Amino acid sequence: MLGEGILKGLAETARNFFGSYVSKDRLTTIQFPEERAPRIEASRNFPFLVYDGTDPMAGLRCVSCLICEKECPPKCIFIEKSTDKKPDAVGKPQFYPSKFNIDISVCMSCQICVEVCPFDAIKMDNAFELSATDRFDALLFNKQQLAKPNEYYHEIHPTEAADVDAALAAARAKAAPKPPPPPAPPTTETPAL
Amino acid sequence: MTTATLPPSATLTSQSGDSDTQLLEVSMGPQHPSTHGVFRMDVALDGEHVVKLKPIFGYLHRNHEKIAENETYLGSMPYTDRLDYFCSITNNWAYALAVETLAGIVVPERAEYLRVITGELTRLQNHASLVGFLMQDMGASGTPLMYAFREREKILDLFETLTGARMMCNYMRFGGCRCDLPEGWLAQAKQVVDAFPRFLDEFERLLSGNEILMARTQGVGVLSKELAINAGVTGPMLRACGVNYDLRKVDKYGIYDRFNFRVPLGEHGDVYDRYMIRLLEMRESVSILQQAMRDLPEGPFTDPKTKVRNFRPKPGEAYGRIEAPKGELGFYLISDGTPNPYRYRVRPPSLINLTILEDMCLGQNIADVVIILGSVDIVMGEVDR
Amino acid sequence: MTPDTIDQIFVITKHWLLGYVPSALQPIVSAILSVVPILVLFPLLFAITTVLERKGLGRIQNRYGPNRVGPYGFSQPIADGIKSLTKEDVIPRSADQVVHFLAPLLLVLAAFLGYAILPIGRNMVITNLNAGLLYFFAIGSMVELAVFMAGWSSRSKYSLLGAMRAVAQMISYEIPLVLASVVIIMATGSLSTVAIVEQQAHYTYSLPHWFVFTPWGFAGFLAFMVAATAESNRSPFDLPEGESEIIAGYYIEYSGFKFALFFLGEYLGMFATSGLAITLFLGGWSAPFSFLTWVPSYLWFFAKLLVLICIFIWIRGTLPRLRQDQLMNLAWKFMLPMTLINIFTAALWHFMPAGILRWLACTALLVIPCIALSRGLKQGKKLQVRTYRFAE
User: Fold this and answer.
1) In this structure, what are the phi and psi dihedrals at residue B45, rounded to the nearest 5 degrees?
2) Four-point Cα dihedral C255, C257, C260, C266, nearest 10
């Protein structure tokens, strides 16, 4: 009969119309910015540098090995090595970056820099409200803008950060200077007369 | 908004016997709501019928293959995400397959299952959005599109929980996957997959018996078997013509021979067949997903011996291909022992399927051209690379 | 305040105001007092309909419609109006300036003229022409002229295509529109809309005598509504403004306020034909049950109008668009024979004695050709739901 399929379609639409007042499944809009979608732990946007402790510059884990700069596919990381050394996350004196710039207008959030970093120094942030009025300078993030504390890393990626902390603690324990051997116990032999 | 100008001289005359009518040349220009990206068609019309159609593409060319010659093998992986930007995971998979063939890397079992699960989820969301877009082009003012996108959002949330990004997933690595499933992902995925057949039923109720849809798609854009095989068409377009060629059954790449699924075939090769084949394929994908999630073994998620940095495959060449949602996606690599490939070539299914657009559209109305283009399922990122 | 006073409040107010005017000026002031409320009310209804449509479509598509401007988004038309007024009016240099300017004006004029014979309430009609229906259909043809003027004068291929399609569509669907109302003329014996409504305002056992409750009236109503959808270029017949193919069709070269005028004209035309459908088939301003006649008549008219508008929105949200040749096939091969058969059925109804036999005969006479014709339409293209085989 002509019109049967059309009537079935109309019934389906009417169901969705009335259902949108009743069930959450049929009204999936989230009213941004008053409501926000629940944050997903793994989501990634642009990289940031992790520092331990309270001083961003002294606690920076990055040792300026230049691996992330080399592996970055669009080549958006620009690092300058320092000339002196400072202790890194495990305690060894290492170089550190005197300049660390990431051009986020080029970065494609591929996460390869995070994968290849041997020192757990660079991780993915998920902040997305980064719009600026200048296309060039304002989108080139320098070391101060990129450095964020380890507590922030725990906030955004709890499971990952816990794993990284455990690995770093193990590495620190291995790298720590061994304690001096305990003094030999006094012998019970009588001294020779 | 490009408006075409009238031809300066009567260069084209109508073939319908009336010698003083001219053909109307319309450029359905690069900015058009229905051309699925920046794609241009120069159409010559005789009244309402198409006499000549020339597709012009290249507006989105981004030098992907040349960039890959200067990047490491791993560095090209995020760029493959951006080829067919709807289905980034299957793009990654095809490239990983090519490199694994080149370097002789063996993939552990759990990684293969993870690849199948994420690949079939990609196929589900691609076919769902495609059917939605087809309806949108037909003028159903976005209703089926919104329903399809509602389901697609759930799958994209799954991808974000697993890989960190909704569309540019960058999930495959040479020898397996980048990371393992987080807590609770499998349960969430099972929920999404089990709810999918209900959405498909709703969709079919809305559309499949609809007389207007049938009238507009049956008998439109017919593609014969011979022409399809000669032109190298692959994917759902080929199966809608009745040719039984699905790479998952032919090549049996990965572990697809362990799954029990059927390949739907069409008969007439028109737009309606292509639309229905995709709906049926979605149901088969759901079945594969349920089997894979049930049988997922424990184990490593990537081959631990494959190097991430300084990866140098032996000199040689390899071609890796998979059944992407749009057709046969292949990567041809020539390695010369350095960390960068010597030659990197993508076989884009959308481009090859697009070459017979003119043959399908001759004699049809201009309103049908848009629908036929929609049923070919092109993504300009892949056509232009 | 009796219900009757509330019902006639506008008529009473008008007569009271006319009392203050010298008798030489009374005809012209009376005309102005009748026309101005229509000029104010229906554009206001248009504004509300745009919001309702967007919110209705939104809810069908599992989302909110506009909900930021004003309470629940109902001030959206004010924002839209300001936007269209302040946009630059771009006229192509090669366009025919005079015709390009006049086309939207003619459209809105034709749409407004159609309201002259619609009885909005008891004793509330601008002019009671005794050839009211004939006047309405004559005015409706002016709309087609305006559409073609718009498409032709823009000197653009897309607009030309759209204009040709629009004119072909509107002319084809005029005929079922008129034929569907011929049955009403036969049943009432009069072309005057006031007389038609008054004949429907009687009740037996609290059920009204609306013509839609007869088999021929129901079929006529359906045919009229389908033809009205096609006349107003609304989905599923909106190929002339086929958004995904030729962008906006005949009004592609219009911007700013003229674009808004096209929209206004289209929606006003929709309201006018819906109003006529209500007048002819749904009893105009009469209440559905005899115990509800205390509600003022104009409220009933607008309630029915709102219901019809909601049905238009519902259909727009569901159905894809028909192609040009399918549209024409539907008009000439299905609607035209059905409306002709409807006329026979109405005549049969008139000459048979009242009773169940009359109902059965008329229903059969309508349903069987309908099924036969629809099979014929499908058969030509062999349309059917297909089943698919799977590879072994």
Assistant:
1) -110, 140
2) -100
Quick check: A2 contacting C, CB < 8 Å?
yes
* Residue C392 is assigned to a structural domain of this protein: no
Report the distance separating Cα A61 and Cα A119, nearest Å: 7
**Cα–Cα distances in Å, from B315 out to B69, B94, B103, B318?**
15, 20, 9, 10
Rounded mean pLDDT, B66-74 = 91
> What values do phi and psi take at A102, rounded to 5?
-125, 130
pTM for the full model?
A: 0.86
B313: tokens are 């495959």
Kindly tell me the number of DSSP H helices and DSSP E strands found in chain B: 15, 9
CB–CB of B160 and A71 under 8 A? no
Separation in Å, CA of C390 to nearest CA in chain B = 4
CB of C57 within 8 Å of a chain A CB? The answer is no
Domain, as residue range, for C325: 3-378
Distance between A176 CA and the closest CA of chain B, angstroms: 29
CB spacing of C62 vs A20 below 8 angstroms: yes
Contact C385, B214 (CB under 8 A): yes
pLDDT digits (tens, 9 = 90+) for C209-226: 888 888 888 889 999 999
* DSSP-assigned beta bridge partners for residue A101: A78
* Among the partner residues C57, C236, C388, nearest to B265 by beta-carbon distance: C388
CB contact at 8 A, C324 and B365:
yes
In whole angstroms, give the CA distance from residue C385 to residue C107. 42
Quick one: tokens of C148? 């073609």
- Cis amide leading into A33 (omega within 30): yes
What's the whole-number average pLDDT of chain C?
85
Distance (Å, whole) CA A14 – CA A18:
6
Interchain proximity A6–C318, CB inside 8 Å: yes
Cβ contact C56–A17 (<8 Å): yes
Residues 20-59 on A with a CB inside 8 Å of C are: 20-21, 26-29, 31
Contact indicator for A85, A96 with CB cutoff of 8 Å: yes
Which of left, alpha, beta for A77 (phi over 0: left; psi -120 to 50: alpha)? beta
pLDDT in tens, B90-117: 999 999 999 999 988 899 999 999 999 9
The residues with which A85 forms a beta bridge, in sequence order, are A95
Does residue C247 sit at the B interface (CB-CB below 8 Å)? yes
Least CA distance to A10: which residue of chain C? Answer: C318
Query: For chain C, how many structural domains are there in total?
Result: 1
**Among the partner residues B48, B135, B263, nearest to C324 by beta-carbon distance:** B48
Helical ranges in chain C per DSSP H: 3-7, 9-18, 26-60, 76-86, 97-113, 132-153, 157-188, 193-200, 215-231, 257-280, 297-318, 324-329, 336-351, 356-381
| Residues of C in Cβ contact (< 8 Å) with B48 | 324-325
ipTM above 0.85, yes or no: no
- Chain B residues within 8 A of C321 when measuring between CB atoms: 138-140, 212
A28 closest CB neighbour out of B143, B153, B211: B153
Give chain A's residues under pLDDT 50: 193
Q: Classify residue C127: in a domain, yes or no.
A: yes
Q: Which residues of C touch A24 (CB under 8 A)?
A: none
Are A17 and C59 in contact by the 8 Å Cβ rule? The answer is yes
Does residue C320 belong to any structural domain of this protein? yes
**Among chain A residues, CA nearest to C383:** A2
C52 interface with A at CB cutoff 8 Å: no
The answer to whether position C281 is within a domain reads yes
pLDDT grade, residue C101 (50/70/90)? Answer: confident
CB contact under 8 A, B276 and C324: no
Please report the DSSP string for B36-99 in residue order.
Answer: SSS-EEEEEEETTEEEEEEEE--TT---HHHHHHHS-TGGGHHHHHTTSTT-HHHHHHHHHHHH
Q: Please, which chains are in contact with A (at least 3 CB pairs closer than 8 A)? A: B, C
From the CB of residue C171, how many other CB atoms can be counted at a distance below 10 Å? 12
